[in-house]
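Before the break, one more example. Copy the sequence into your notebook; we will annotate it together after we see the structure.
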Amino acid sequence: MMVVTLGYSHYVMQTADAVRLLEILENAERYVLKYRASDASTHHVWPNDTTFEAKMIGTDLYRMAKLAGKPED
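Here is what the structure looks like once it is written out:
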């Protein structure tokens, strides 16, 4: 299993799926809409300069974390 970090969120998935996802994101472009109250809003697209993090986790750690489930706040 792999843990993929996108922004401040972490997702766990099969290694093959993580590799596919990272390959797709590598070819994606960034987009943002800049809201301007007094003027027209602008849209921006540029090459992806974001880095993504992925790390392997062992089966035992994955199973233990799955048993723990969603944390209570």
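The first strand starts at residue 2 and ends at 6. The mean pLDDT is 93. Try to locate both features in your own notes.
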